Amino acid sequence: MALGLAFQASFPFAPVDNYTNFVYWLLYLPILLAFSMRRSLFVAVLRVNLRMWLSVAALLTWVAITALWSDSGGESESAFVQAVENCLMILLYLLGVAVLAYQAPGSLLRAVLAACCAVALLAVLSTLNHLIVSEASIFERLTKAGIGNWTEEFNPVVLGIYFGAFSLISLVVAFRGFKGGLERFVLSACAIVCFVATVLTGTRTALLALFAVTSVYLLGRQHRWTAVSVATIACGVVAYIAMDPSSVMHDYVARNGLSTLGLRPQAWLASLQLALDRPWFGLGLWSEFSFTISQPPYTYPVAHSHNFYLQLLVWTGVIGLLLYLNFLAQAVVLARRLSSDPVAGLSFWTLAYFAVVQLFDVYNVFTRPDYYWVCLWLPIGAVLGVAARGRADVQSASPQPNSSMDYKLKNGVDGPLGGR
To answer: For the range 317-325, what are the long-range contacts, defined as Cβ-Cβ under 8 Å and sequence gap of 24 or more?
Structure first.
């Protein structure tokens, strides 16, 4: 199961058919086998934080139901069937990750370590292709120059969010998950490589979220490496800007004269107006819509809201948005409360990063396994497993019934044969 989890998190940009088949065999098959042989583990995980599991079930159920009236370019019945399949896969994935975090947290952390190394290798290939092979500017990458045959079909904004997530994950696991010097060195190197790849994608959303969350994380730690880490990142950013200030201004601000920072409020307002057509129930999951926003002399066609919360409001209405916010808030609060545990701490910071990213990007999270699962469903499943393990540890540490201490408290004597 841990091997399958590492694969799912590491290779979402592989060819779709091969990736999906490997995920089924390496991840979902072990989850189903574990469920058939150790059903008590799943029951133990579900019993703890039942309220949150019900919130997850309510959200996924409502999301699937809205597909019945979706205008997604196909039959609503087929969209509903696809939505049900996706939501069931998400629920099974959450259970599998929760059981792994409950039963074998060390294996989960090693799976994350393996995923960080694999993603760092992908980031190295991306950087080499960007700087040497294609010699593409950041603006050219944003027009989907891609990184070779593997990811040329993916928007570099998605790559930036993905690499940014693993830059943060590597950093947190290096500080919290492992005590060995070798593991910390490898994870620190992964964090640096993924951060460089994030910068080279030009994804301002990821950089903003990464800067905000990483700054809070590092400044909140009393650790000798904190000042070194902050100084290294600051020097790297200053050096990058100093190499070619005009290019940085072009890539990150002007964007060939089309400043999308100024265009986003237009997209948000247009999405809000669209949501008002069916405010409570929404247009339906995956409903297709588009609108044009402008910044003279340019016009910019937009097919999504550039804000996942508004996107969800358009698709699933106020009901769906409230269910999602309730579910996400419960997960963040639970992860923060348990953040002394390395796995829960990792979940908290990853969810914080993704909560910021969703303010400016992200199209859909109710999909089959893909790149956004590592930012949302993986940390939520992990923190649910940590909560179950914490409850089990408390119960095992509490005095057992009929013990000598219980007898004393109940009868006011020194023991079964004693007296006052």
So the answer is: 317/66, 317/275, 317/278, 317/279, 317/280, 317/281, 317/282, 318/279, 318/280, 319/62, 319/280, 319/281, 319/282, 320/59, 320/62, 320/63, 320/66, 320/282, 323/55, 323/58, 323/59, 323/62, 324/59
